[in-house]
Protein backbone atom coordinates (compact mmCIF):
# COMPACT_ATOMS: atom_id res chain seq x y z
CA UNK A 1 0.00 0.00 0.00
CA UNK A 2 2.84 2.38 0.88
CA UNK A 3 4.69 1.55 -2.38
CA UNK A 4 1.45 2.32 -4.26
CA UNK A 5 1.32 5.88 -2.90
CA UNK A 6 5.10 6.40 -3.41
CA UNK A 7 4.65 5.66 -7.13
CA UNK A 8 1.84 8.21 -7.50
CA UNK A 9 3.76 9.83 -10.42
CA UNK A 10 3.13 6.65 -12.40
CA UNK A 11 -0.67 6.83 -11.86
CA UNK A 12 -2.91 7.27 -14.83
CA UNK A 13 -5.47 10.07 -14.80
CA UNK A 14 -8.25 7.60 -13.96
CA UNK A 15 -6.30 6.24 -10.99
CA UNK A 16 -5.51 9.71 -9.69
CA UNK A 17 -9.19 10.79 -9.88
CA UNK A 18 -10.34 7.59 -8.18
CA UNK A 19 -7.91 8.08 -5.27
CA UNK A 20 -8.94 11.73 -4.92
CA UNK A 21 -12.63 10.81 -4.74
CA UNK A 22 -11.92 8.15 -2.11
CA UNK A 23 -9.99 10.70 -0.03
CA UNK A 24 -12.82 13.21 -0.24
CA UNK A 25 -15.34 10.54 0.76
CA UNK A 26 -13.23 9.51 3.78
CA UNK A 27 -12.82 13.15 4.81
CA UNK A 28 -16.56 13.76 4.61
CA UNK A 29 -17.28 10.62 6.62
CA UNK A 30 -14.87 11.66 9.37
CA UNK A 31 -16.32 15.16 9.47
CA UNK A 32 -19.88 13.85 9.80
CA UNK A 33 -18.79 11.42 12.51
CA UNK A 34 -17.16 14.23 14.48
CA UNK A 35 -20.27 16.38 14.19
CA UNK A 36 -22.42 13.50 15.33
CA UNK A 37 -20.29 12.99 18.43
CA UNK A 38 -20.69 16.69 19.26
CA UNK A 39 -24.47 16.38 19.15
CA UNK A 40 -25.05 18.14 15.80
CA UNK A 41 -27.79 16.84 13.49
CA UNK A 42 -26.50 14.17 11.04
CA UNK A 43 -29.38 13.78 8.57
CA UNK A 44 -32.40 15.57 7.25
CA UNK A 45 -34.58 13.35 9.46
CA UNK A 46 -32.64 14.64 12.49
CA UNK A 47 -33.38 18.19 11.41
CA UNK A 48 -37.09 17.34 11.37
CA UNK A 49 -36.89 16.02 14.92
CA UNK A 50 -35.20 19.22 16.12
CA UNK A 51 -37.85 21.30 14.40
CA UNK A 52 -40.65 19.28 15.99
CA UNK A 53 -38.98 19.64 19.39
CA UNK A 54 -38.80 23.41 18.96
CA UNK A 55 -42.47 23.51 17.99
CA UNK A 56 -43.31 21.40 21.03
CA UNK A 57 -41.33 23.73 23.31
CA UNK A 58 -43.15 26.74 21.88
CA UNK A 59 -46.51 25.05 22.40
CA UNK A 60 -45.51 24.00 25.91
CA UNK A 61 -44.52 27.57 26.76
CA UNK A 62 -47.83 28.84 25.42
CA UNK A 63 -49.69 26.23 27.46
CA UNK A 64 -47.80 27.20 30.60
CA UNK A 65 -48.75 30.82 30.05
CA UNK A 66 -52.39 29.82 29.70
CA UNK A 67 -52.45 28.12 33.09
CA UNK A 68 -52.60 31.45 34.88
CA UNK A 69 -55.17 34.22 34.76
CA UNK A 70 -55.55 37.65 36.32
CA UNK A 71 -58.97 38.25 37.84
CA UNK A 72 -60.05 41.66 39.07
CA UNK A 73 -63.09 42.32 41.24
CA UNK A 74 -64.32 45.62 42.61
CA UNK A 75 -66.92 46.91 45.00
CA UNK A 76 -70.35 48.34 44.38
CA UNK A 77 -71.32 50.29 41.29
CA UNK A 78 -74.03 52.25 43.06
CA UNK A 79 -75.67 54.95 40.95
CA UNK A 80 -76.93 57.68 43.25
CA UNK A 81 -78.99 60.32 41.48
CA UNK A 82 -76.11 62.82 41.57
CA UNK A 83 -74.16 60.50 39.27
CA UNK A 84 -76.77 60.11 36.59
CA UNK A 85 -77.83 63.75 36.82
CA UNK A 86 -74.22 64.79 36.12
CA UNK A 87 -74.13 62.38 33.16
CA UNK A 88 -77.23 63.81 31.49
CA UNK A 89 -76.63 65.50 28.13
CA UNK A 90 -78.52 68.40 26.56
CA UNK A 91 -80.48 66.03 24.30
CA UNK A 92 -81.83 64.10 27.29
CA UNK A 93 -79.58 61.05 26.89
CA UNK A 94 -76.82 59.97 29.28
CA UNK A 95 -73.10 59.32 28.92
CA UNK A 96 -71.37 57.56 31.82
CA UNK A 97 -68.03 56.77 30.17
CA UNK A 98 -66.29 59.53 32.13
CA UNK A 99 -67.01 57.65 35.37
CA UNK A 100 -64.42 55.04 34.44
CA UNK A 101 -61.74 57.25 32.92
CA UNK A 102 -59.19 56.61 35.66
CA UNK A 103 -59.98 52.97 36.50
CA UNK A 104 -60.26 51.74 32.93
CA UNK A 105 -56.47 51.25 32.53
CA UNK A 106 -56.49 49.08 35.66
CA UNK A 107 -59.43 47.01 34.49
CA UNK A 108 -57.77 46.36 31.14
CA UNK A 109 -54.88 44.62 32.93
CA UNK A 110 -57.10 41.70 33.92
CA UNK A 111 -58.26 38.64 32.00
CA UNK A 112 -61.60 38.62 33.82
CA UNK A 113 -63.22 41.66 35.45
CA UNK A 114 -66.13 41.26 37.87
CA UNK A 115 -68.25 44.12 39.18
CA UNK A 116 -71.15 44.42 41.60
CA UNK A 117 -73.94 46.46 40.02
CA UNK A 118 -76.06 47.49 42.99
CA UNK A 119 -79.37 48.72 41.68
CA UNK A 120 -81.61 48.11 38.69
CA UNK A 121 -82.10 49.27 35.11
CA UNK A 122 -85.81 49.41 34.31
CA UNK A 123 -86.95 51.89 31.65
CA UNK A 124 -90.57 51.41 32.74
CA UNK A 125 -89.77 52.59 36.27
CA UNK A 126 -88.83 56.09 37.39
CA UNK A 127 -85.15 56.92 37.87
CA UNK A 128 -84.11 56.78 41.49
CA UNK A 129 -80.90 57.12 43.48
CA UNK A 130 -81.88 56.50 47.11
CA UNK A 131 -83.35 54.66 48.92
CA UNK A 132 -84.42 52.84 45.74
CA UNK A 133 -81.93 52.60 42.89
CA UNK A 134 -82.89 52.58 39.22
CA UNK A 135 -80.36 53.91 36.71
CA UNK A 136 -80.60 54.86 33.02
CA UNK A 137 -79.87 52.06 30.56
CA UNK A 138 -76.82 53.89 29.20
CA UNK A 139 -74.83 52.84 32.27
CA UNK A 140 -74.34 49.39 30.77
CA UNK A 141 -72.54 50.62 27.66
CA UNK A 142 -70.07 52.54 29.82
CA UNK A 143 -69.55 49.60 32.18
CA UNK A 144 -68.90 47.26 29.27
CA UNK A 145 -66.52 49.73 27.62
CA UNK A 146 -64.58 50.04 30.89
CA UNK A 147 -63.71 46.35 30.69
CA UNK A 148 -66.25 44.49 32.82
CA UNK A 149 -67.34 41.02 31.74
CA UNK A 150 -69.43 39.84 34.71
CA UNK A 151 -71.84 41.80 36.93
CA UNK A 152 -73.16 40.55 40.26
CA UNK A 153 -76.86 41.26 40.90
CA UNK A 154 -77.26 39.43 44.21
CA UNK A 155 -77.77 42.42 46.50
CA UNK A 156 -80.38 44.11 48.65
CA UNK A 157 -81.40 46.58 45.91
CA UNK A 158 -82.20 44.14 43.11
CA UNK A 159 -85.95 44.40 43.82
CA UNK A 160 -85.96 48.21 43.86
CA UNK A 161 -88.04 48.22 40.67
CA UNK A 162 -89.80 44.94 41.43
CA UNK A 163 -89.42 41.59 39.64
CA UNK A 164 -89.68 43.41 36.33
CA UNK A 165 -86.49 45.23 37.28
CA UNK A 166 -84.69 41.96 38.00
CA UNK A 167 -85.47 40.74 34.50
CA UNK A 168 -84.81 44.06 32.73
CA UNK A 169 -81.47 44.58 34.52
CA UNK A 170 -80.19 41.13 33.64
CA UNK A 171 -81.40 41.66 30.08
CA UNK A 172 -79.60 45.03 29.83
CA UNK A 173 -76.37 43.42 31.02
CA UNK A 174 -76.64 40.64 28.46
CA UNK A 175 -77.47 43.02 25.62
CA UNK A 176 -74.34 45.00 26.47
CA UNK A 177 -72.26 41.83 26.07
CA UNK A 178 -71.72 40.97 29.74
CA UNK A 179 -72.90 38.15 32.01
CA UNK A 180 -75.15 38.65 35.06
CA UNK A 181 -74.80 36.41 38.11
CA UNK A 182 -76.84 36.19 41.31
CA UNK A 183 -80.27 36.21 39.63
CA UNK A 184 -82.01 33.64 37.46
CA UNK A 185 -84.06 35.03 34.58
CA UNK A 186 -83.84 32.26 31.99
CA UNK A 187 -84.43 29.23 34.19
CA UNK A 188 -85.43 28.85 37.87
CA UNK A 189 -82.59 28.79 40.37
CA UNK A 190 -82.95 25.07 41.05
CA UNK A 191 -82.64 24.23 37.34
CA UNK A 192 -80.25 26.89 36.05
CA UNK A 193 -76.71 25.96 35.00
CA UNK A 194 -73.75 27.28 36.96
CA UNK A 195 -72.18 30.31 35.26
CA UNK A 196 -68.71 29.20 34.16
CA UNK A 197 -66.23 31.42 32.34
CA UNK A 198 -63.19 29.93 30.63
CA UNK A 199 -60.23 32.21 31.25
CA UNK A 200 -56.94 31.25 29.57
CA UNK A 201 -58.04 27.62 29.62
CA UNK A 202 -59.11 27.74 33.30
CA UNK A 203 -62.78 27.11 34.04
CA UNK A 204 -64.00 29.67 36.57
CA UNK A 205 -67.38 29.14 38.24
CA UNK A 206 -69.18 32.22 39.57
CA UNK A 207 -71.92 32.29 42.21
CA UNK A 208 -73.44 35.21 44.12
CA UNK A 209 -75.75 35.52 47.12
CA UNK A 210 -77.52 38.25 49.10
CA UNK A 211 -78.48 38.39 52.78
CA UNK A 212 -81.84 40.02 51.91
CA UNK A 213 -83.78 42.43 49.73
CA UNK A 214 -84.77 45.32 52.01
CA UNK A 215 -88.14 43.76 52.80
CA UNK A 216 -89.41 44.23 49.25
CA UNK A 217 -89.44 40.45 48.87
CA UNK A 218 -92.61 40.48 50.97
CA UNK A 219 -94.45 42.02 48.03
CA UNK A 220 -93.64 39.17 45.63
CA UNK A 221 -94.85 35.58 45.59
CA UNK A 222 -92.83 32.76 47.11
CA UNK A 223 -92.74 31.20 43.66
CA UNK A 224 -91.07 34.27 42.16
CA UNK A 225 -88.71 34.53 45.13
CA UNK A 226 -87.50 30.95 44.67
CA UNK A 227 -87.32 31.29 40.91
CA UNK A 228 -85.42 34.55 40.45
CA UNK A 229 -83.44 35.34 43.59
CA UNK A 230 -80.26 34.01 45.20
CA UNK A 231 -80.32 34.23 48.98
CA UNK A 232 -78.11 32.84 51.74
CA UNK A 233 -80.03 29.59 52.17
CA UNK A 234 -77.21 27.34 53.37
CA UNK A 235 -78.59 24.10 51.94
CA UNK A 236 -78.96 25.65 48.50
CA UNK A 237 -75.56 27.36 48.65
CA UNK A 238 -73.81 24.18 49.75
CA UNK A 239 -75.32 22.18 46.90
CA UNK A 240 -74.49 24.87 44.33
CA UNK A 241 -70.91 25.36 45.50
CA UNK A 242 -70.26 21.61 45.58
CA UNK A 243 -71.69 21.34 42.07
CA UNK A 244 -69.55 24.23 40.85
CA UNK A 245 -66.46 22.61 42.33
CA UNK A 246 -67.09 19.51 40.23
CA UNK A 247 -67.74 21.41 37.00
CA UNK A 248 -65.00 24.05 37.18
CA UNK A 249 -61.34 24.44 38.11
CA UNK A 250 -61.86 27.48 40.34
CA UNK A 251 -65.01 28.58 42.21
CA UNK A 252 -65.57 32.26 43.05
CA UNK A 253 -68.32 33.31 45.45
CA UNK A 254 -69.66 36.87 45.83
CA UNK A 255 -71.77 37.05 49.01
CA UNK A 256 -73.44 40.28 50.08
CA UNK A 257 -73.68 40.56 53.84
CA UNK A 258 -72.25 42.33 56.87
CA UNK A 259 -72.85 45.74 58.43
CA UNK A 260 -72.63 48.91 56.35
CA UNK A 261 -69.63 51.19 57.08
CA UNK A 262 -68.19 48.74 59.62
CA UNK A 263 -64.53 48.08 58.90
CA UNK A 264 -64.44 44.73 60.71
CA UNK A 265 -66.42 41.66 59.60
CA UNK A 266 -69.14 40.22 61.79
CA UNK A 267 -68.88 36.78 63.32
CA UNK A 268 -71.67 35.71 60.99
CA UNK A 269 -69.57 36.72 57.98
CA UNK A 270 -66.51 34.87 59.24
CA UNK A 271 -68.42 31.67 59.98
CA UNK A 272 -70.32 31.61 56.69
CA UNK A 273 -67.28 32.43 54.57
CA UNK A 274 -65.35 29.61 56.21
CA UNK A 275 -68.26 27.26 55.53
CA UNK A 276 -68.15 28.29 51.88
CA UNK A 277 -64.47 27.39 51.80
CA UNK A 278 -65.28 24.00 53.32
CA UNK A 279 -67.97 23.45 50.67
CA UNK A 280 -65.47 24.07 47.89
CA UNK A 281 -65.13 27.82 47.28
CA UNK A 282 -61.66 28.94 46.21
CA UNK A 283 -62.10 32.72 46.29
CA UNK A 284 -64.66 34.84 48.15
CA UNK A 285 -65.29 38.46 47.20
CA UNK A 286 -67.56 39.89 49.90
CA UNK A 287 -69.63 43.04 49.58
CA UNK A 288 -72.26 45.33 51.17
CA UNK A 289 -70.38 47.26 53.92
CA UNK A 290 -69.18 49.89 51.35
CA UNK A 291 -65.82 50.02 53.12
CA UNK A 292 -62.76 47.80 52.95
CA UNK A 293 -62.68 44.97 55.47
CA UNK A 294 -59.68 42.73 56.15
CA UNK A 295 -58.76 39.93 53.77
CA UNK A 296 -57.38 36.58 54.81
CA UNK A 297 -56.05 33.39 53.26
CA UNK A 298 -57.34 30.16 54.80
CA UNK A 299 -56.00 27.74 52.18
CA UNK A 300 -58.19 29.88 49.90
CA UNK A 301 -58.62 33.68 49.56
CA UNK A 302 -61.37 35.49 51.49
CA UNK A 303 -61.96 39.21 50.90
CA UNK A 304 -64.69 40.17 53.32
CA UNK A 305 -65.62 43.49 51.72
CA UNK A 306 -64.48 45.17 48.51
CA UNK A 307 -65.78 48.61 49.52
CA UNK A 308 -67.42 50.70 46.77
CA UNK A 309 -66.09 51.72 43.38
CA UNK A 310 -68.74 54.19 42.24
CA UNK A 311 -71.31 55.92 44.42
CA UNK A 312 -72.67 59.32 45.30
CA UNK A 313 -71.53 59.52 48.93
CA UNK A 314 -68.13 60.68 50.11
CA UNK A 315 -66.84 58.46 52.88
CA UNK A 316 -64.16 59.38 55.40
CA UNK A 317 -64.42 56.13 57.29
CA UNK A 318 -61.41 54.59 55.58
CA UNK A 319 -59.44 54.70 52.40
CA UNK A 320 -61.42 53.47 49.41
CA UNK A 321 -59.55 50.78 47.50
CA UNK A 322 -61.81 50.11 44.56
CA UNK A 323 -60.30 47.00 42.96
CA UNK A 324 -58.74 43.74 44.01
CA UNK A 325 -56.48 41.94 41.53
CA UNK A 326 -55.84 38.22 41.82
CA UNK A 327 -53.39 36.18 39.79
CA UNK A 328 -54.96 32.76 39.65
CA UNK A 329 -53.11 29.58 38.71
CA UNK A 330 -54.70 26.37 37.50
CA UNK A 331 -53.17 24.64 40.51
CA UNK A 332 -55.38 26.92 42.67
CA UNK A 333 -52.58 29.12 43.94
CA UNK A 334 -53.64 32.75 44.22
CA UNK A 335 -51.64 35.96 44.48
CA UNK A 336 -53.63 39.06 45.40
CA UNK A 337 -53.12 42.81 45.62
CA UNK A 338 -55.17 45.99 45.88
CA UNK A 339 -55.27 48.17 42.79
From TrEMBL:
It comes from the Bacteria. Residues 70-320 form the Capsule synthesis protein CapA domain. InterPro entries: Capsule_synth_CapA, CW_Biosynth-Accessory, Metallo-depent_PP-like. Belongs to the CapA family. This is Bacterial capsule synthesis protein. It comes from Streptococcus infantis SK1076.
Amino acid sequence: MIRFFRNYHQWSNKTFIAVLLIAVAISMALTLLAEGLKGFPLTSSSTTVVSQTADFKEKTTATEQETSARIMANGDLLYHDIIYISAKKSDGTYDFHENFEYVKPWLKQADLVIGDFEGTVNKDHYLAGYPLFNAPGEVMDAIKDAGYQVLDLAHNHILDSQIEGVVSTADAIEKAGMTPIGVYTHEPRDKAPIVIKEVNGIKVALLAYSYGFNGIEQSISQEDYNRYLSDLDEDKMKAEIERAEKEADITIIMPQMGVEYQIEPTEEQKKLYHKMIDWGADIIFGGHPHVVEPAETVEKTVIKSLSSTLWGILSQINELKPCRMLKMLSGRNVESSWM
